[in-house]
Structure prediction request, 337 residues.
Amino acid sequence: WLTLGIETSCDETAVSVVRDGRQVLSSIVASQIPEHQKFGGVVPEVASRQHVETITQVIDEALREAEVSLEQIHQVAVTYGPGLVGALLVGVAAAKALAYGRRLPLNGVNHIEGHLFANFIQSPSLEPPLLALIVSGGHTHLVHMKQYGVYEILGKTRDDAAGEAFDKVARVLGLGYPGGPLIDAAARQGDPRAIDFPRAVVTDHPWDFSFSGLKSAVLNHVNTVRMKGHDVQVADVAASFQQAVVDVLVNKTLDCAVTNGIKQVVLSGGVAANSLLRQTLADRCREQGIAFCAPDLALCTDNGAMIACVGYYDYSLGIRSRWNLNAVAGLSIGERN
Ligand code: ATP
Ligand code: MG
Ligand code: FE
Prediction:
């Protein structure tokens, strides 16, 4: 059973061919990062236009690399939310055209579920129940996946997403875009105890997150240092900021897993590429006797394979999208339109 997975929710045009839900035959990712770099962030109009220009090529390349023809594909899966509406529409239109033309089943997929499912590709024997820490450019979620298609959100961010915090702090430090990998690299040369940044507690809900206070604390620190006429110690600030984010993410995830008696933890989303987060969460899970999985770096950031994987499982649950499938910018996990 071959699924074609299409992803255009943000700044990657990505297409993949996946066999039986978990075996990746090809995964092509055309990144638009150079296009957006000059603006210091993703420009929605530019993203849509880039998707239109590259989608056909990326589909062809994914088929070619998988050594299959369109005639051999059984199902088309596509991200229909959450994301930039104009960007999503390009993938949805392409998927509908392909599926309708060949009378194939069409499955609209939730992008955040996609990030979680990268772990099912990574680990062929992984099965729910599990607790997923999903940390991406726009989302920070603790999700209890009880079985396929059944989710309970146990925690989420009240303000900024973890990835957003990385990107904003990188901009303040003058490191560039996207900020996550640059902070990760800078932090290696710095002292994580140099500056004691706040670890936010959300009083009425133990597993919710808040990163805006931390972001402001970094900004204040940098401004104060500059006002005194000193140089900002970029590596120390990066390391101390990263340590604060990782402490909060790891402590809440462990507490949530232990409190709810969940025996497996998976990490996913673009921030799952962070080296300190991967290492720290792996170590803490091992200490607690909790199984742990994190996808390889290429599966952490946006890709078509994770979308094909969700589409495969949705289809096997009997879920089908109609031909009027539309982009839903604010789609939340577990929701269906
Ligand atoms: P969403 O999935 O919420 O819709 P998105 O698709 O834009 O948003 P992803 O592509 O999943 O987000 O992840 C991109 C984010 O991951 C960016 O914020 C980026 O800075 C961050 N990121 C990537 N690598 C690292 C890293 N090594 N350390 C920290 N953050 C990282
Ligand atoms: Mg991206
Ligand atoms: Fe994403």
Notes: The pocket of magnesium ion (ligand 2) is lined by residues 10-12, 137, 301-302 (CB under 6 Å). The longest helix spans residues 234-259. Residues 96 and 323 are 7 Å apart (CA to CA). The beta strands are 2-7, 12-19, 23-31, 75-81, 106-110, 130-135, 140-147, 150-156, 264-268, 291-293.
